[in-house]
C-alpha cells in the first residue's frame, strides 16, 4: 500500500508535513489579507520553524508574532527585525528583551495592568529607542487583557508615558472563536474582536494618546472577518497547518490539514478491536481538542499512509509511546486489520501541540518526495 | 516571599527539580527492591536525563528500560550496556537496533505476535550474539501483550527459535494500576501483574522453552507488591519524580513530588477570580491526569515559590503560554492575589508528560541552591 511513498527510511513516529497543503493554507490567508489591504503578522508559535515562516511572507523576514522569547531569539538570529512578544510582560523578562533590542531587533511587548507597565518603564528607562508597548485588550472574556471600556486602559497608557517606552497600540486575541461553529458564529466573533479593539483604541485616542497600531487575530477570525475597518494588522498561527479543531469549527476540512504523525502498526488486540501503533501521547500530544464541545476525535483521526482519511477510525487511547486505533463505534468487529509494520498517518487535534512534541518536520514535497527535514525548536 | 530562593536568574516558565525529594523517591523504591532481593531496571523514559538515571543505581550504569531508541542512543553513548526497549518491535526499527548492537550494547526487545517475531528473526538472522527477545504479556487488558493463557504465546516462542534471536523471557506492564486507589486495590493489582507474568513463563517452560527473565512493573505495583516470587526484575519510571496521579492513587503525597513548573504572575482578572501566569500547556503539558476518574487537579496544583501547596488553587485553564490559576470552587472572591512578577510552582498531573515539555531541569540542591541545569532530551 505504501510502496509509492518514500517512507522506508523514516523511523516512526515522525511528524510529516505536506508542503502542497502548507502552501495552500498560507496562500488562503495571504490572499484574504491582500483583499483587505491589512498587514499580516504571522504567529510563529505554531510551526517554530524558519522554513515555514519564510513561506508566509515570501522570505521577506517581515513582522512576526512570538509566544516565547526563545522564538524571538531564533528568528532574530535568522535576521528578523520586527518581533512582537504577545504574552504579558513580567519583570523577569527584562534582561532577555534588552538582549534582543541590543541585537537591533524592534521588539514590541504587551501589558494589561499598571504594575507591569510601571515595571516596564522602570526596566527600559535608559533605552535610546523606546520599546514599543501594546495594551492587551480582552474581546471575549477568555483570558488576559482589559475590557475595551475599562478605565484601567487609560491608567496603563498613562504609565507608559515614560522614557524608554512608548504606547504603540492595542492588541487582542479572540480565542473565543475556537468555540464558534459555522460561518455565522465565526463572522460574528470576528466582528466582536475587531469592534472591541477599535473601541479601545478610540478611547485611548480621545484621551490624547497616539494609537498607531490596532492588532487583532486568530486563525478563525482572520479567515472569517467580513471587514477590518480600523485594524492595522492581523495575527494568526495555526492557519499554516490547520487541524481537527479548525475542521470542527468549519474553518477547514480534514483534507486541508498539512501535518500528521506517521506511525507503524505494532500489534492488535482482536478481542477489543484495537490496532496498536507506535505513536502515543509523546508523538500526538495529550491535546483532546474540542472533544468535550463538538466532535471527539480521540487523540487524532486516522489516515492511510497516503493521507486518505479512514473514516471513523480514531486514536481512542494513548500511552507514552503506544496509541490504540479503533473504530469510533467501539465495535470490535470493525478492527482496522492491517499487518504489523503497516504505516498510518494521524491528523492532529491541535497542530500547535502535536508539532511541539517533535524536533523536525519530515517534508513531503509537491512531487511526493521526502525533502531534507526542516528543524523546529522548543523551549523558552 | 521568594527572596530566600535563588530564582532571580531563572526566566519562567522553567522545570524545577528538587534534588532532596528526588533522592528520597529513588531511595524508597531501591530499599524495597533490596528487601525483595529483586533487580530494578529503571525506566528512563520519565526523566530522559543521565544525571537522574545515575542516581537510580549509584552511577553503575546498570540495566535500564527505554521507551524509544533515541533513549537507547543517548544512554549507550553514556556507557550503558544493558538496554531494554519496552515498546513492541516493528521491522522499521531493525537498522536502529542493529546500530546499537554494533556499539556493544546488549539490547533486548519485546514482541506480542508471530509476525513481529518472524520479522525479528529475519532481520537479525546474521547476528553473532543473538538478540534477546521478551514476549509481552497482558496482565490488565489495558494495552498490548498476549494474555497469559493465550496459545499464541507458544507460537511466538516457536518463531523465536531461530538464528540471531533468543527468547529471554516475558515482560508485562500493569498500567491498570493507574486506576487503583488505595493500598488494598494496589496490592491486588501488583499480585495480578506478578501472577500473570509468572503463569505465562511457566507455560512457556512447560513447552520446553528456557525463560530466564520475568520482568514486571509500574511505579504503583513496584511500591505495593507484597511478594515477588518468580519475578526476576522490576521496572518503574515515574517513581523518581512522582506526580499528582500517583498522589491520587495513594502512592505518594503531593509533598513528595520532586518536579514542578516555576511560573510568574503576569496579571489578574479580578471579576473572574483569575490569576494569569506564564505557564500554559506548553510548559505544563495537556495531561489532565486522573481528572475524569478521581480528583480533577486542572493542569496542576499550585504551590508558593518555596513549594508549599496552596490548598485548592489549581490551574483551571491553559493556553499555549498562559495558565489561569483559580480557586477550585470557582469563587471569584478567592482570587490568589499576588502581585505581578510573583513566582509560583505548579505540581504536575503527570511528570512524564510535563517534563517532556522542557529541555532541562533547574536543580534545587539540598541546600536550596540552584545547580547547573541537567539537560534532558526528547525525540525518537
What would you call the structural class of chain A?
Answer: alpha/beta
Biggest sheet layout of chain A = 8 strands, parallel
Q: What gross morphology of chain A would you assign? A: elongated
The two chains with the largest interface, and their residue counts, are: A-B, 61 and 61 residues
What helical percentage do the residues of chain A reach? 25-40%
The total tally of domains of chain A equals 2
How are the strands ordered across the major sheet of chain A?
2-9-8-7-6-5-4-3
Could you say what the CATH topology of the largest domain in chain A is called?
TIM Barrel
Task: Compute the separation of the termini of chain A in Å.
Answer: 41 Å
Mean pLDDT of chain A: 96
Can you tag this structure with a few keywords?
homodimer, 380 residues, alpha/beta, TIM Barrel, Lyase, Ornithine Decarboxylase, Chain A, domain 1, 2 domains, 8-stranded parallel beta sheet, 6-stranded antiparallel beta barrel, 28% helix, 24% strand, elongated
Amino acid at each position: 500500500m505504501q510502496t509509492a511513498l518514500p517512507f522506508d527510511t523514516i523511523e516512526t513516529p515522525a511528524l510529516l508535513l505536506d508542503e502542497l497543503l502548507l502552501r495552500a493554507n498560507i496562500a488562503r490567508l495571504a490572499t484574504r489579507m491582500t483583499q483587505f489591504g491589512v498587514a499580516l503578522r504571522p504567529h510563529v508559535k505554531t510551526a517554530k520553524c524558519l522554513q515555514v515562516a519564510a513561506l508566509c511572507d515570501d522570505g521577506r523576514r517581515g513582522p512576526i508574532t512570538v509566544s516565547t522569547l526563545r522564538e524571538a531569539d531564533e528568528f532574530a538570529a535568522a535576521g528578523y527585525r520586527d518581533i512582537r512578544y504577545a504574552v504579558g510582560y513580567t519583570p523577569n523578562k527584562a534582561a532577555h528583551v534588552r538582549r534582543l533590542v541590543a541585537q537591533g531587533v524592534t521588539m514590541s511587548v504587551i501589558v494589561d495592568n499598571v504594575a507591569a507597565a510601571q515595571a516596564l518603564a522602570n526596566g527600559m528607562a535608559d533605552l535610546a529607542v523606546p520599546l514599543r508597548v501594546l495594551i492587551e485588550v480582552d474581546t471575549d472574556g477568555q483570558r488576559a487583557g482589559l475590557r475595551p471600556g475599562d478605565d484601567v486602559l487609560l491608567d496603563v497608557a498613562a504609565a507608559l508615558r515614560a522614557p524608554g517606552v512608548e504606547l504603540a497600540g492595542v492588541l487582542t486575541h479572540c480565542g473565543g472563536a475556537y468555540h464558534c461553529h459555522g460561518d455565522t458564529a465565526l463572522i460574528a466573533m470576528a466582528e466582536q474582536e475587531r469592534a472591541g479593539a477599535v473601541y479601545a483604541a478610540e478611547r485611548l485616542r480621545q484621551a490624547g494618546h497616539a494609537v498607531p497600531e490596532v492588532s487583532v487575530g486568530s486563525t478563525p477570525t482572520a479567515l472569517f472577518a467580513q471587514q477590518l475597518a480600523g485594524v492595522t494588522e492581523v495575527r494568526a498561527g495555526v492557519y499554516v497547518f490547520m487541524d481537527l479543531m479548525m475542521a470542527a469549527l468549519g474553518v477547514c476540512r480534514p483534507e486541508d490539514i498539512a501535518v500528521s504523525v506517521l506511525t507503524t502498526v505494532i500489534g492488535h488486540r482482536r478481542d477489543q478491536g484495537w490496532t496498536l501503533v507506535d505513536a502515543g501521547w509523546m508523538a500526538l500530544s495529550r491535546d483532546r481538542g474540542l472533544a468535550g464541545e463538538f466532535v471527539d476525535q480521540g487523540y487524532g483521526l486516522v489516515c492511510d499512509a497516503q493521507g486518505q482519511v479512514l473514516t471513523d477510525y480514531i486514536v481512542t487511547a494513548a500511552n507514552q509511546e503506544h496509541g490504540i486505533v479503533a473504530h469510533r463505534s467501539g465495535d470490535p468487529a470493525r478492527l482496522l486489520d492491517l499487518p504489523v509494520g503497516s504505516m498510518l498517518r494521524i491528523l492532529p487535534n491541535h497542530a500547535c501541540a502535536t508539532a511541539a512534541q517533535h524536533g523536525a518536520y519530515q517534508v513531503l514535497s509537491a512531487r511526493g518526495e521526502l525533502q531534507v527535514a526542516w528543524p523546529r525548536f522548543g523551549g523558552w
